[in-house]
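hiii so um. not sure if this is the right channel but i have a protein structure encoded as C-alpha cells and i wanna go backwards to a sequence. like what aa goes where. can anyone help
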C-alpha cells in the first residue's frame, strides 16, 4: 500500500505551518483533520475531509543503493 503525505505547506494558511504527516491514507486524514481543527480553526465535516484528501500526495520513498 502506498503511504500518503499531507504537508501543511501545500494548504493556504496565514500561519506558515510546516507540519508534514505521513502514513496510510485514513491515518493521515484523521491526523490532518485533528491538526486542522486544533491549530487552523477548521471544522471537521465530511466535505472538509474530502477536500483534504485531494491535497494528499504519495510518499516518495528514497531509493537505496
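sure thing!! here u go:
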Amino acid at each position: 500500500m502506498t503511504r500518503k503525505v499531507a504537508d501543511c505547506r501545500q494548504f493556504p494558511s496565514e500561519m506558515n505551518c510546516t507540519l508534514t504527516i505521513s502514513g496510510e491514507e485514513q491515518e493521515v486524514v484523521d491526523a490532518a483533520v485533528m491538526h486542522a481543527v486544533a491549530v487552523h480553526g477548521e471544522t471537521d465535516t465530511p466535505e472538509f475531509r474530502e477536500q483534504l484528501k485531494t491535497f494528499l500526495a504519495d510518499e516518495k520513498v528514497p531509493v537505496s543503493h
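oh and Residues 25-40 form the longest helix (16 residues).
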